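Today's session is about reading a structure prediction critically. Students often jump straight to the picture, but the first step is always the sequence itself: look for stretches that repeat, for charged clusters, for runs of hydrophobic residues. Only then move on to the predicted structure, which in these notes is written as discrete structure tokens rather than atom positions. Here is the chain we will use throughout the hour.
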Amino acid sequence: MVAIAIRRIEAHDVDGIANIYAEVIDPNYVSFSELAEGKADGPGTLSPRARSIFLDQLRSQIDDRQCGYFVATAGDPVGFALASIHDTEAGHLECWLDDVCVKRHWQGQGIARRLVEAVFEWGNRAGAKYFLLETGTYNEHAHRLFRRLGFQPLAEVFWRSISPEQKKSQPD
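Below is the predicted structure for this chain, in token form.
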């Protein structure tokens, strides 16, 4: 059995991590963040630019002290978790689990759990009051993992596309 190491992401990991993202991202699991970041055009529809947007974000934020980026390696990257710390209007810190992905061949071996545990440790050290995440409605596999890790549903986000008539009336 190959030993899996969990560590902070380094610059040389970025392309391998973007490849994992491209392999694992599923249009059926689109959530709010993919829409907001331009990685998806709507539920079930990924942008052809999703990987390049992800790669640009990762490169620009890898050294940000508010970001806890972790990689699981077995020689090469096999999974990753991205998290970020945010100040709230109430005056405390919250930690968002922004992404967790494991190559399909490596799934089911506890790697995602170990990555999220690394995020928990990082967020606790940063002083986060709680942890949040958002996930696509139909991503049941991830939902089971998150529940096992102590997450519980908090809210639902509803989406509606603007109608063609409304698009025509928008300024250019």
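Discussion point for the tutorial: The first helix runs from residue 14 to 24.
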